[in-house]
């Protein structure tokens, strides 16, 4: 009888401990980003033009949180492109529940380049060398706002 009573008292505690609290709309990590002059993640590269670095506020969807400590995550830039995002302040920690959420980030966007200067890589053949300018976008965020 005593074991049954203990089970009945402990089961509700275990069930409530398993529930995840959803991220509320409007939650801010780091500094609150400016939500007035922002760009879509899909349009960030065209907004940058020929500039290699620029300050911007970007709205987009989080693909996955790669490292919670330091705020490392990937954001969709449309057409299969990915923006690698990390926080300027390493003390910022992001929850894994951010996956699939629409967020607004503020900070500095930069283009990543791989030079094609006809140099041989150690132990590699010229056929295995990268061709042209490749790479994606990287974003150093100062703040994140959970939009949806």
Key traits:
alpha+beta, 34% strand, OB fold (Dihydrolipoamide Acetyltransferase, E2P), 148 residues, 2 helices, 5-stranded mixed β-barrel
Explain the overall architecture:
The protein is α+β, with helices and mostly antiparallel strands. The protein has a single domain, classed as Nucleic acid-binding proteins (OB fold (Dihydrolipoamide Acetyltransferase, E2P)), CATH 2.40.50.140. The protein has helices at 2-18, 44-48, and strands at residues 28-30, 39-40, 53-67, 72-76, 82-87, 102-111, 137-146. Strands 3-4-5-7-6 form a five-stranded mixed beta barrel. Strand 2 (39-40), helix 2 (44-48) and strand 3 form a beta-alpha-beta unit. The protein starts with a helix and ends with a strand.
Helices and strands in order:
Elements: H1 2-18, E1 28-30, E2 39-40, H2 44-48, E3 53-67, E4 72-76, E5 82-87, E6 102-111, E7 137-146
Parallel strand pairs: 2-3, 5-7
Antiparallel strand pairs: 1-7, 3-4, 3-6, 4-5, 6-7
Average pLDDT for all residues: 79
- Could you name the CATH class? Mainly Beta
Net shape:
globular
Helix fraction, binned, reads: 10-25%
**In total, how many beta strands?**
7
Question: Distance N terminus to C terminus?
Answer: 48 Å
| Main sheet specs | 5 strands, mixed, barrel
Short description:
With 148 residues, the chain is an alpha+beta fold. Helices cover 15% and strands 34% of the residues.
